[in-house]
Amino acid sequence: MWVWILFIALVVVFLALDLGVFNKNDHVIKSKEAGIWTAVWVTVALGFSGVIYWLFSSGMVENPTNLTPNNAVLKYVTGYLIELSLSIDNVFVIAVIFTSFNIPPIYQHRVLFWGILGAIIFRGLMIVFGVALISKFEWIIYVFGVFLLYTAYKMLKSDDSEFDPKKSWIFRQVKKVFPVTHQIQGHDFFVKRMGVRAATPLFMALIVIELTDVLFALDSIPAILAITADPFIVFSSNILAILGLRSMYFLISRMLEKFRYINYSLVVILAFVGLKMLFSHNIELPEWVSLTVITVSLLAGIIASLAIPQKEDEEVISAEE
User: Fold this and answer.
1) Which of 297, 230, 228, 306 is nearest to 268 (CA)?
2) How far apart are the first and last CA of the chain?
3) Cα–Cα distances in Å, from 24 out to 111, 119, 277?
4) pLDDT, tens digit (0-9, with 9 covering 90-100), for 127-147
5) C-beta separation of 75 from 48 below 8 A
């Protein structure tokens, strides 16, 4: 239990340093700063694999699935890459939300900070629930597998440009609870309007981001559970990937058009993980196979996006937007 407490305390320290020291004053996150912080978070996350090895080799953490230290490290890295890759799709949606609510770049980091904090809490609850389900009902893994395949199909057929946060069910429900104003007053989430406390666009964006992340978690958590049912590996890999989401957003959100084929990489990853779940009791794939499929899929999407010229009609549409 103390390992969990120490890990959560470490996450709290990271968050406190982020908002209280490094980003105490609101400012626009430039690509260079975002790149440095993305490298820092990736280094921390991959470096944590050494902690995973030490914990499982020393027996200081519960090992309900009887993993060897080397296998635990492979599962952790694979789970981390899955969550990191699926977070790319989250970046696309966050960019649409910020644009829809006209959130100034100077305040976007603060909104994401509180969004990430809420996501950590929700993800933790969903991971505990998901692990408990798989442990008690083995057949649930087939349900997760079918769901991931359905998600991959929907992602393949969907058009992200159709998503309008202001027309979403989430936005309509929040408006029923809070009076809403279009006024932005610094980084405040609420302002006084004619004696009434009203939610600003920052708060509305935060809530929509928070609840859409829960929907994304319905994909990413079953995907990681396909790799391992060890609760600490699932939790730590998921949370460390989420912590790096903010800097990754500011790094790649300005290059969304360049990564137009990355969605196909995510489709391949989700489909592979879904099939792995469905055939988990018949075929046991080595961990390096999963790691290779995920890595190659991501690299293929990035290389294809950079190497294949954009069609003229696509360029015209992008210019009009």
Assistant:
1) 297
2) 51
3) 13, 21, 44
4) 877 777 776 777 777 887 888
5) no
